[in-house]
Design goal:
about 550 residues, D-Maltodextrin-Binding Protein, domain 2, PBP_domain, signal, three-stranded mixed sheet, eight-stranded mixed sheet, Phosphate ABC transporter substrate-binding protein, single chain, alpha+beta
Length: about 550
């Protein structure tokens, strides 16, 4: 009833006023494909516009490479990718399509390093890794968790002598491209030495950028398809020792931690919305409106930023928009696509942080709004600073999120100390059955005792959290984690790990207390399906993807 009252009062009203449309124009269904990196945000926005306006949008999470190919071939109305076509220094033959198009930023975020590691049977949540350590892990140079270099990053942890299992994407992905761009830029020696081992040719004497991660047969690497696939594998109970690169959103949904990564200022930081916003202040954006690469990003200065709050692997995703009619793309489809883009550049960004992303700053929103006006048939509402409702906007045009970003704690500085707090979705402190609080529980330096950190059992010290929380359920939630071999999908149900379905139907969130605890929830209006039913999910006949349960309704 609270949700209905809020809606009635206008607090959670429609996502934005609609423009006046010409007689005969309709919002035709549109289809998109591509990035899994930004899929959680896209699917949330798709549900929201369906709930408010009944715009039918179907999005296939097929990976950035497939998204670029589908758009080029005309089999999708829009694509989504973390890298542009024909990126420089690429190992892949990815040419610009003949179809006329423009790039538009969608959402920012951090590529996170989600892991599954235990000490004394309790989950570690306060792992720290330098860029050099990460590069050596994903090029097969460092193969065990008790390697001396990993110990240098983690002075308060007694790391187990077990193999590191790097988990990478088996399909073409933007996350892989982002990591390979970073490896080529910041760790060229390691990357150049790795490529020949997997039969990859050198480009100008260097290992190039790739969307398809190369794996040495028999190396111990594991390859899985999709962000859900790699995250789902790492979250398996028997996958202790595994680590993957994935959008932060997937770690939040799974309830598993991510590594704090050493930045250019000498601090280990998390891929929070604020840290990503700070990082992107250093991004170089192509502002040449005549350039075919307009609005694409150069992250060189992000990798090396001297701001202590920066998360080094911060970036944003692109939507590939058609700027001419042709094939199956009509003006009525353009109407839907332009209105959808106008929605998520403003109100949609409100839910970015809770979904594990960072809202776009004002310069990218304004540039994106200009791109939307190139879509044939479109009539988007162009909102300014005062009415856009984007949480990054300040009246002076600066990035509010970055301005208010907190500085890291002293214990996050590179050196002999180490914070005990965890990251990612594993922020809770076990207090119920299964928590190590009695005799034998570790209490020495490095043991997780703050928010997000549990306590280690036995004689081990420095474990920052345990798999048992509350009433002894798995940290991934009361429903656990599905086996990635059969259903590579994360199912999240803990209050620290809010399912996408719980936040996707409205752009604003409310906070309310239940059972003595504080939970984030969305005031969700019922959706009337085609047959008049009331439901919290779209009608199966509507073709709307349901990512909260890993299903595609078609």
């Amino acid at each position: 009833m609270l949700g209905l009252a809020l809606i009635a009062s206008g607090v959670f009203g429609a996502a934005g006023a609609l423009p006046a449309y010409a007689v005969g124009t309709v919002h035709s269904p549109i289809v998109g494909s591509g990035s899994t990196w930004s899929a959680n945000a896209l699917q949330a926005w798709i549900r929201n516009v369906w709930a408010n306006y009944q715009w039918k949008i179907t999005y296939s999470e097929s990976g950035s490479t497939q998204g670029r190919n589908d758009f080029a071939n005309g089999t999708s109305d829009f694509g989504v990718s973390e890298i542009p076509y024909a990126i420089a220094n690429s190992n892949e033959a990815d040419i610009r399509p003949s179809r006329e198009f423009a790039y538009m930023p969608i959402v920012a975020g951090g590529t996170a390093f989600m892991y599954n590691l235990e000490i004394g049977g309790k989950r570690v949540t306060n792992l720290r890794l330098s860029g050099d350590t990460i590069a050596k892990i994903f090029t097969g140079v460092i193969t065990r968790w008790d390697d001396p270099q990993v110990k240098v990053d983690n002075p308060a942890l007694v790391l187990p002598s077990i193999p590191i299992v790097p988990v990478v994407r088996s399909d073409g992905s933007g996350a892989t491209a982002q990591v390979s761009i970073w490896l080529r830029q910041e760790h060229a020696g390691l990357w150049d030495a790795y490529c020949p081992k997997v039969g990859r040719p050198l480009v100008n004497d260097h290992c190039g950028v790739t969307s398809n991660y190369p794996v040495i047969p028999g190396s111990g690497f594991v390859a899985r398809s999709g962000s859900n696939g790699v995250a789902g594998y790492v979250a398996l109970p028997h996958a202790v020792g595994a680590i993957t690169f994935v959008e932060y959103s997937y770690a939040l949904n799974s309830g598993y931690p991510v590594a704090k990564v050493l930045n250019g200022a000498g601090y280990y930081t998390e891929p929070t919305a604020q840290n990503v916003a700070v990082g992107l202040l250093s991004a170089q954006i192509n502002e040449d409106t005549a350039s075919p690469e307009y609005l694409t990003q150069d992250l060189t200065n992000v990798y090396t930023s001297a701001d202590p709050r920066t998360y080094s692997l911060s970036s944003y995703s692109y939507s590939i928009l058609p700027t001419a009619l042709g094939g199956s793309f009509t003006e009525n489809k353009g109407l839907t696509l332009a209105d959808f883009g106008a929605y998520f550049l403003c109100e949609g960004q409100q839910s970015a942080e809770v979904l594990g992303y960072s809202p776009l700053p004002i310069n990218l929103v304004q540039a994106g709004q200009k791109q939307l006006q190139k879509v044939p048939g479109g009539n988007p509402v162009i909102k300014g600073i005062t009415d856009c409702n984007n949480p990054t906007f300040s009246p002076d045009g600066s990035n509010k999120l970055a301005n208010e970003a907190p500085y890291p704690a002293d214990c996050d500085k590179q050196g002999a100390t180490q914070c005990t707090t965890g990251t990612g979705g594993a922020k809770d402190t076990p207090t119920g059955p299964g928590a190590a609080t009695g005799p034998g529980a570790a209490t020495g330096p490095g043991v997780g005792t703050g928010p997000g950190a549990g306590t280690a059992a036995g004689d081990e010290t420095g474990a920052g959290g345990g798999p048992a929380a509350g009433d002894g359920q798995q940290a991934a939630g009361s429903e656990g984690v599905l086996d990635a071999e059969t259903a590579p999908v994360i199912v999240a149900a803990s209050p620290q790990s809010i399912p996408v379905a719980a936040v996707s139907l409205l752009p604003s969130l409310a906070m309310a207390g239940f059972g003595g605890g504080l939970f984030a929830f969305s005031a969700i209006p019922p959706i009337l399906g085609k047959r008049g039913r009331t439901s919290l999910l779209p009608d199966p006949a509507d073709g709307i993807a349901d990512t909260s349960r890993g299903l595609t309704r078609s």
